[in-house]
Amino acid sequence: MGTKPPRSLLVGLIGRGTALSRTPLMHEIEGARQGLRYVYTRIDPAEMTEAPSFADMLRAAEICGYAGVNVTHPYKQQAVAFLDEMSDEARAVGAVNTIVLNGGRRVGHNTDLWGFAESFRRAMGSEPRERVLLIGAGGAGSAVANALLDCGVGTVLVADTDRAAAERLVASLQSRFGGARAVVAESAEDVVPDMDGIVNATPVGMADHPGLPLAPDLLRPAHWVVDIIYFPMETAFARAARATGCRVATGSGMAIFQAVKAFELFSGLTADPDAMRATFDGFGPV
Length: 286
Hints:
Number of strands: 12
Strand content: 15-25%
Number of helices: 10
Structural class: alpha/beta
Order of helices and strands: EHEHEEHEEHEHEHEHEEHEHH
Radius of gyration: 19 Å
Strand order of the largest sheet: 2-1-3-5-6-4
CATH superfamily of the largest domain: NAD(P)-binding Rossmann-like Domain
CATH architecture of the largest domain: 3-Layer(aba) Sandwich
Distance between the termini: 48 Å
């Protein structure tokens, strides 16, 4: 009697500038560890001669038999329009980073929210969290803002170069958490002295978006700083915060824990966070 072949699973990542993503290998190695034939591909329009629309990329994944896709910049909010169903977390955030494709239905989730909350609790412990400045009101910023308030932050002040985006996010947060817990920061620079913590949820600092989201001379040792970017592993902003004496967390924790939850949604199996972290760390610093 022959041995039953391992279950096969095909998933992918839709987003721009994903060449350095560690997510595919985290999924594939965890899948192999659990006895799956697990294939994770990147669907990156920046690497195509003619960039397709998000709708076309998602439809192509369905036709090819994908069990689901992760979604990253710049499609997390745009993807909402193409779903049949959303989890409560994704609906609250207004953005998705994980879509399960099942029987012709597209079900959206936001594992960024869970991933940031889990990594934040572990990294920041009992650090003061009465007032936190969040820079960035996009899809990732929305997930981070909801996670911060879920984690007990008193008030989140949202700053974004797109004032309308900041206002939309604050309105959404106020409807879920109450009016006093989220406000628009008129000027990120002006509010920094009164903050306990600062979170960068913008692409500023990535390899293809160089720069800093905030002037580093505004930082003080009493601040804690989180930069959700993980390539490069240490951004110029995170490096400046460390040099100032701030407690700093990079985007590695969020990247690992969002992948843990996404793996479970795609496969129906419980992932091992420590094993996936070992894969992540195996890349070394980038």
